[in-house]
Every structure is written in C-alpha cells, then in structure tokens.
Design a protein that fits this description.
TIM Barrel, 14 helices, 12 strands
C-alpha cells in the first residue's frame, strides 16, 4: 500500500479485542498502531507489549506517555524492553501531559519546554547506549547506562515523537524530535500554524520540515449509513467544543455556536447536558473536524489532512464497526 495509514486505540475495547483489531490492521497494510495514555484509565505500555508480541510487522507507538510520571532512565529502559520484544518496530511517543490531572496527582508542571528537552535528550542518549551524565533542572543522572547483561548491546532504533499541542512545544519538537504526533479534532487548515512552528524548530537544528515526520490523529466514524456515522462522532465533538473552544474557533467553528454550547455545558459535564448540547451541533461542524460519514466521505476528509501536511493519518475509530474502518483504508485513502 503506497499510502501510509495507522490505527489509534484508547480504552474503548477490551485488550484481547484490541489485539485482534491490531492484527487485522496489520493484515490491511496499516503502518502502525498508537496506544493512547492520558486519563487514569489504561496505561500505554501493557497494551503496546501485547500488540508487539502478537504481530510481526506493524509498528507500535505510545500516543502518548508523559515526561513527568516516569523518569528518563525508566522511559529508556521501558522502550529498550519493548524493542527487545519487537526490534525496530517501537516508537516512543511522549507529551507534556495536562492539568488539572497533573496537579490532582501532585505534579507541578513548571517549565514544560525545558522539562521535555531534558527528558528527550537523556532518553535518546541512553537508547544510543551511551554512558550518560546530565545535570539539568528536571533530569539529573550521573554516569548511568542501560545495563544489559544479556541481549543486544547495539544502539536501539526507537524514534522519539512529541505529542505537541502549543506552538512553543511544536517548535521544540521540530528541533529535538524525530516526529510530531499532531492532534485530532482540528480542521485541516489548523495544521498551517503547526507546520510553521515545526519548520522554525527544524531550522534551529539544521533540518528541514521534510525531516520531521508528521502523523496526525484523525477521528474516523465510518458507516454505510451516513447519519449513523455522523451521530457516532457528534458526542465527542460536542464535548470538545465545550472543553477547547479556542481550538474550535481557530478551526472555523462560529462563536455563536461556541456560546450556545458553553451555555449548556458545565465542566465536568453531565450526560444530560451533553445530550442537550449534541442537538445544537450540525453535521457540517462534525465533518469539519472529523472524518465522518460514508467510506467515500471519510477517505476524502483524510485526503484533506494529508494535503494540509499530515504524513500519516492515525485513525481513531468511533462506532461499533472497527473492521469497516480498517477495510475502508485497506488500499489507502487515495481512491
């Protein structure tokens, strides 16, 4: 398959069922599976190991762990172990996490750019099998290395991707990372600012924007029944309209709609409020920031994200028929 596509999984499916989806994605020619880790629901590492152990070719990435709850040496050791399980198929996706969750578990996210730079620097050097001494503000290690008694001692091919949201983190990503895992629930045109920031950072490191891989999470609600597909994405879109109005406005959602949603939704929103707010969200807004509809409509929307700079759509399936979504992209998105 000429087109690059990948699968994104959160916690909607039991892990044995998710394994079967990943195996089918591999059969359909998908390049990678990215496992989410954000809320206190399901960590990324256990399902990543399960996916890696039960497949042969598909790459397995974290989408994304954070750089606060695991120290840099543990992150390096963890991804070394995953690479032992599936050599040259592991991707380390890492992000800066978010509040209020971080604050609620006792983490104060001061200077997130510096913290990320220090973490990525040390993790990369450890996976390169270097002996590392680093005395930063957030990462302090003295003469450590990955202490392999048995097994491969050569440097590991584990690329590091940053799940950046803000443009300052995006610029840093262009400078220090192998790739950026771009966010979902944005209109394709929203990528313009992200690519500008990535290019700015890449230039600092003597790289080009083409040197930075840019997979992007894309919500994909596919059904032969168009209404069912759109309704399948509407709840997630509604919640996001209430939680991230600034991003929605930048994507082209009208201020009038955002005000209406804000009038109905509090935070945290009740199911009753979400249901009421969903009735306010028209189909065109759902399709503005997701790939939802018939298989043909979904492929067409994915092509818009690729045209806007995404190098590999990472498809987040909504709805009951995950296999239909995978089959929709068996031959890529070009036709």
């Amino acid at each position: 398959m000429a087109d690059r596509v990948a699968l994104y999984l959160q916690d909607a499916h039991p892990i044995p069922e998710a394994i079967r989806y990943v195996q089918y994605a591999e059969e359909c020619g998908f390049e990678a599976v990215w496992q989410a880790e954000s809320r206190l629901v399901r960590d990324a590492i256990v399902p990543m190991a399960a996916f890696a152990a039960t497949t042969k070719k598909i790459k397995v990435g974290s989408g994304v762990i954070n750089n606060w709850t695991r120290n840099a040496s543990l992150i390096a050791a963890t991804y070394l172990t995953l690479d032992d399980l599936a050599p040259n198929r592991i991707i380390c996706g890492i992000g800066a996490w978010w509040d209020p969750l971080a604050a609620n578990v006792g983490i104060k996210r001061d200077k997130p750019l510096l913290a990320m730079r220090e973490c990525v620097t040390v993790v990369r050097d450890l996976l390169a099998m270097k002996n590392v001494t680093f005395q930063g503000e957030f990462v302090k290690v003295n003469g450590i290395e990955l202490d392999i008694v048995h097994g491969r001692r050569e440097p590991r091919n584990v690329p590091i991707y940053i799940g950046a949201t803000g443009m300052k983190m995006m610029t840093l990503t262009g400078e220090i990372a192998d790739g950026a895992l771009l966010n979902y629930l944005v209109a394709p045109r929203y990528n313009e600012e992200a690519l500008d920031a990535l290019e700015k950072g890449a230039k600092v490191a003597g790289k080009r924007i083409e040197d930075i891989d840019r997979p992007q999470l894309v919500v994909a609600s596919v059904d032969k029944d168009r209404k069912k597909a759109l309704d399948g994405a509407r709840k997630l879109v509604t919640q996001y309209l209430g939680q991230q109005p600034h991003i929605m406005k930048a994507s082209g959602v009208s201020q009038e709609l955002l005000d209406e949603i804000a009038h109905v939704l509090t935070w945290p929103a009740t199911e009753e409020q979400i249901e009421k707010a969903m009735a306010l969200v028209p189909d065109d807004v759902v399709q503005l920031i997701t790939a939802s509809g018939t298989p043909e409509e979904v492929r067409a929307k994915v092509r818009e994200y690729v045209a806007a700079g995404c190098t590999c759509p990472v498809l987040y399936p909504l709805g009951d028929d995950v296999r239909l979504m995978l089959e929709t992209f068996r031959n890529g998105y070009s036709n």
